[in-house]
Amino acid sequence: MGHYSYLEIGTAKALLCRESYYPDVAALFVENDCYRRKETGEDCGAEGQYGYETSIREMSQRLEMQGITPSVALADLAEGLGKWTERPAGGEALQNPELAPPDIAQVERDVRFYLSSDLETLPYSEFGRVSDSGALIDYLHWHMDTRSLVRLLLHWAPDQNARIALDLSELTGCCVELDPTTPYASQARAEQLAVATTNLPLVVITEGSTDARLLSEGMKVTHPHLVGFLRFFDYSAGSRPPGGADALTEVFKAFVAAGIGNRFVAIADNDAAAHEKLLALKKNRWPPKCRILHYPALPMLQAYPTYDPATGTSTPADVNGQAGSLEMYLGQDALTDTNGDLMPVHWKAVQPKTGLRQGALREPDKRAAQKRFKAKLKAARSGQPAGTEDWSGISAIIDSIVRAFQ
To answer: Rounded to two decimals, what is the model's pTM?
Structure first.
């Protein structure tokens, strides 16, 4: 006959699983829902009642938090009914296809009837309908998201004050032995989240809205195959968004505190100021789903023109790690002025903790570099690039993000 786990809503049993349990059903519960009760009467050798239990109200709220509203569940049902005659992968064919309901209203009537039926007082003439309705629910499980199906069962339950339980009692006796001390719900949820994490786009946090916008647009040219798989955090969604390494740090910490499902990367300028400000952040141990990076070193920046206002001298210098703001990665063509010369980095103060000297382009030069970069973006989008554009800096940044978790 076998041993089964099942979902119990009030007194009705649904989603029977032989010799095991459905992990996506277990993932709907939490360990605080776990119950273990000894049988008070003769129980044919079972060790007692064991499973997970909560209220319909609490379970409904959990599903709402995942976006599974009654309307979403009904839409999923409609899609599932459209696949009614298909044999589900890994599932059994419908034994009596003519019982397939013609519309959602019929499904609702049958499910409501099933959930409200008391087998102890049910007339014998109704047992066939109950059996067909139970088979209907099981068959729908193959064609719907489990959460949507459970949401409809809860929505149509006759007693909204009833309990919903995953009964694992039959799996603790002979032949099938679950360890009641094992956190099965937590394990199922962790596995579910792990799968979700791999499917969600990688989120990249930059120092501000300008960096995010230019990198996002540049990626469409250098790495168009990553569009939809890599997303830059949009600072512009708020009013007067802050910028700099401080803003990056705050967003990074907020992501960690919120426990967002996406993997995420914080990538800062490769200059002295950013290295100084991120020292403390990089010393902490963070979850494995996140990384802290700086823009990578570029060969072009190893001997870049610099100007020291303190001495009035101009000399080539390696500005990697000291003056690597995003503008320095927009390409040699964007950094070249109207005279054909590279716009020089101007040296500023030495950072006290790292001993690195901060450098940067003058503000008019930054704006000029961004303007030239936007012009070549426009040309690339229109399909009329000059063919001599330098995308090496943007490409290097995106490549470093791709390698972040290697």
So the answer is: 0.72
